[in-house]
Amino acid sequence: NITLVLKNTNDFFASDADIHLGLSTFRSINSSILFDGYVLDHPDTSYVSGGFYSNWFDGTIKMSNETWHIEPSRKYGQTLVNAGPSIIYNALDVDMTKYNSNTAFRSKRVVIDENDESSSFCGLNKNENQKNMDKETKRSIPDDFEELDFKSRYTRSKRQTTDKNERERTCCYIYIRVDPTLWDVVYKNEGLNEKEPTIHAIVTFLYRTVTAANAIYRSLKFESNGDVLHRFTLRIKRIRILTPDDCGHKNLSLSETNICRSFLDSNVLLTWHSAEDFSDYCLAYIFAARDFGDGTLGLAWMGSVASNSRGGICEKSSKDMYEGQRVTKTLNTGMITVINHNTRTSSLMTELTFAHEVGHNLGAEHDDEKCGGDTTYGHYIMYRRATTGLEENNNKFSNCSMDKMGPVVISVKNELVGKVNCLTECSQVGYCGNRNVEDNEECDCGFISECTDDCCYPAGGPDAKLGCKLKPGARCSPSKGPCCSDQCTFHAPSHICHKDKASQDCIGDVRCDGIQATCPLNDTQFFKPIDALCLIGFMSIFVKICSVHTPSSNPRLKPARTLSLKRGCHGPRPHAMHKNRQPASSSAISGSELTSLQQQSKGQPKVFVRGSNSTDKQQIRIQQNKIKSSHL
Fold first, then answer.
1. Which of 114, 315, 357, 441 is catalytic?
2. How many Cα atoms occupy the beta-carbon half-sphere of 257 within 13 Å?
């Protein structure tokens, strides 16, 4: 058995993170769909992350030297949908050789350093880049009062850098914009043409991407002149979703009006994305689903410690001329696309591309032949061409990259050479309005715009001090659990708070106890004997249902879960990853390539499928209320 121990997580979101939809709608991020954890028997050598939405688990299992991806088949188009709702595959078993040809286009990542005439561009030389960006100006045009701040940009401010809190400022808050092209692709595929599933799919995708990058960055030590910054961490602060329906609205910003254009090359997209004030953020990225003709997967402004440099983490806004207009511009930005040569790129490739581009923001240049790695262990992250992510060096930075990033990060930390330290402490504190009832709260029904609970004061109300407290006369709030009625009183012990779902659950009918709002799911009197199912899956890994009866921190949310993967019911066992195996070297998984995975291993299907009859659907579909998990 491979048992995954999962818990709800919001570790890589700011405590007040939100989603901005359309022109005016803000909502808190629903982190109840997101999970991380480990393989039970390998707690120190495994990591699991992902999300549950639309009855799917979308995530990654990393164990020792193997990486398994579990994803909705719809993510890669209609080709796989008839085979089943989900695919489970080993990263090594994806054939990417058609992109590893000297005659085929190669996936490229581009970094823009507008201050360095000798900058190396993967797909464009300096002159071509300037032409495509409409002769981007090399110097900002300051506002009337910005001249007063010129000295402070290049001198160190007075700060007690030895303060303990200063040493703990390692969190980089990110603004992420979802390009309308990405919304459109996800809406038609994973989103099932529905708004809420699309939002959940996008949040899960971004969570997986940032989590994978953090697995790389949090282990690094940035060093320069005897100073060190360790455990650099990326956290999502805001997700701005721009849909095709929003495009064309007269109240859109100049930046987003231009982002809505159908045909943009990678440079122009990044330039218009950067044409906003992102001074409140460490980094600001746009994720798109655009197929750039030069094969570009990512683009970023590069950090530097040069005295006249602009760009990189914590960069503040300035005024520039672009396409004849004077615009605000912030160069702490980057761009990622998930389409390459008319094909959805693999999750692994997107994760590595994002890590690569953030490396540019931190000052890393492309590795040359001296620093770029070798044929035995593969190229490092900052190699100019996209790697497969399967070789040992693919998710590591070379010494050359570390030597470049160290001075930039330490200069930001100590506010040298005009840098500003926008990093924050990484303590994760709960907050009123996230709809999770924390220890210091009586209830939490969300913000005033979304709260429908008559028993609880919402966040953001006229009197902020009353937020997340019970209203006068209320004994409880439904936000704390299903055993509280809409009349703000506890349900009677006869009230069923969890309904027996027959074969879909391991708990029978659960009844309230009359004295608390939470549903007593951990009361053993309601447990059923576990009749685990052994179901066929990828590489003869089988999914069964089991129970660890520990409620989540918010009992009103659907219970947490444990996903068990069982090997050996019948059929061959999965092969191990071998050091001398030569992986392919490109950036995308096509639908036909994933379909071909099903044709291997003596006819055993490698797709975790949902059968066509009702019995199969009940057995195999992973539902949110069906899989339990303990908290770590």
1. 357
2. 7
- Give how far Cα 179 sits from Cα of 12, 107, 259, 384, Å: 21, 20, 7, 25
Residue 366 known to bind ligand: yes
* Residues in a beta bridge with 2: 565
First to last CA, the chain: 19
6-41 pLDDT, tens digit per residue, is 888 877 888 778 899 988 778 888 888 898 888 888
* 356 is an annotated ligand-binding site residue: yes
d(CA 39, CA 578): 21
What's the half-sphere exposure (Cβ side, CA atoms, 13 Å) at 283?
A: 29
Phi and psi at residue 164, in whole multiples of 5°? -60, -40
357 belongs to the catalytic site: yes
In this predicted structure, the answer to whether residue 326 has a pLDDT above a threshold of 50 is: yes
Structure tokens at 171: 């969190």
Closest Cα partner for 111 from 312, 273, 341?
Answer: 312
The distance from CA 408 to its chain's CA centroid, rounded to whole angstroms, is 25
Whether domain 100-425 has CATH 3.40.390.10: yes
pTM over 0.85, yes/no: no
Domain boundaries, the chain: 100-425
Report residue 23: phi and psi, to 5°: -95, -25
As a whole number, mean pLDDT of residues 467-479 equals 94
Can you read off the two tokens belonging to residue 205? 């995708």
